[in-house]
Design brief:
Blueprint: H1 14-25, E1 31-35, H2 38-41, H3 60-68, E2 73-77, H4 78-84, E3 93-96, H5 119-129, E4 133-142, H6 147-163, E5 167-174, H7 185-197, E6 202-205, E7 209-210, E8 213-214, H8 216-225, E9 230-234, H9 241-253, E10 259-262, H10 264-267, H11 271-286, H12 291-299
Parallel strand pairs: 1-2, 1-10, 2-3, 3-4, 4-5, 5-6, 6-9, 9-10
Antiparallel strand pairs: 7-8
Helix pairs in contact: 3-11, 7-8, 9-11, 9-12, 11-12
Length: about 300
């Protein structure tokens, strides 16, 4: 697939952007994003407890998996990359520029996740470190009373990323006192349209469901509303490999999504199993593997 080249990428960075896009997507136009930003978002709930291997409590587990597995990008906070990247300098990174904890419930206060660092800080760090930093990411809580501030920050981040030949991924989640159903297909489609209006290369969204089952028609509404911005479906809570890979395949081939953002379904497994799971997800997302082929990868066959 030839990547769509945003018009705000300067001529001198056009090749850089296109090479970056193709590297991140394995030439497929689809992105397998390994999400490692939950250390802030979910505190330690996702890393320690029943059914979670003890090794997942150590942040280095994320880097070990990202280094050994097939992935498009590993998305995590700047500080974690700075702490570990000297030992894991071959990982394709995406720097998450904002984050918030889940300590304050949404019904108590509308969320605001303020930008931590500037894109210029990432550009300088990339040049100084020589790391393979392919892009930046940012979360917008649509429907929050603070959405105006997050929308402005997101718009600037996307534009500045493009100005430097990097891709930009936006997480857009409807959250706040006026959001009644964050899995409503029309609301998610609206969030997809906002991602397109902000110029995102990819937008990570909630998944529409009906009665606990994937709403394929709803997902088609979402992916169409996103236009030239690729939709990444969130990975959600850990489930069985069979169920996860089957839904992922349907999201792409029936719903029109262009990838996924998966954390718990990868890192909440022992190292070797986590690597195989990531490889299976990458195979479905980027290599057009069937569910059966992906399950064989997961099984180590």
């Amino acid at each position: 697939m030839t990547p769509y080249l945003p018009a705000d990428v300067p001529a001198e960075y056009e090749k850089t952007f296109m090479d970056t896009f193709m590297e991140a997507t394995g030439g497929s136009g689809r992105l397998m994003l390994f999400a490692g930003d939950q250390k802030v978002e979910h505190l330690n709930n996702d890393f320690f407890g029943e059914g979670i291997p003890l090794e997942d409590n150590d942040p280095e587990h994320l880097f070990k998996v990202a280094s050994a597995a097939d992935i498009g990008v590993f998305a995590t906070q700047f500080g974690l990359i700075a702490r570990y990247a000297r030992d894991y300098n071959t990982i394709p990174y995406l720097v998450k520029l904002n984050a918030k904890t889940n300590l304050i419930p949404y019904e108590a206060k509308d969320p605001y996740s303020q930008q931590w660092l500037e894109v210029s800080d990432v550009v300088r760090f990339k040049a100084q470190s020589g790391l393979k930093i392919l892009g930046v990411g940012y979360t917008v809580y649509l429907g929050s009373e603070h959405e105006h501030a997050m929308l402005r920050e997101a718009a600037r981040i996307v534009h500045e990323a493009h100005q430097n030949g990097m891709i930009a991924v936006l997480w857009i989640y409807p959250k706040g006192n006026f959001v009644k159903d964050q899995h409503d297909r029309h609301l998610i489609a609206g969030a997809a349209g906002v991602g397109a209006a902000l110029g995102a290369d990819f937008v990570k969204l909630k998944v529409p469901y009906i009665g606990g089952e994937l709403d394929v028609d709803g997902l088609n509404e979402v992916t169409t509303a996103a236009g030239r911005s690729g939709v990444l479906c969130e990975g959600g809570n850990k489930t069985t490999p069979e169920a996860f890979l089957l839904e992922l395949h349907r999201q792409i081939h029936e719903g029109g999504s262009r990838g996924n953002g998966t954390g718990r379904n990868i890192h909440q497994r022992p190292f070797e199993e986590a690597v195989r799971m990531a490889n299976a997800i990458y195979a479905v997302t980027v290599k057009n593997a069937s569910v059966e082929e992906a399950l064989r990868i997961y099984s180590g066959e």
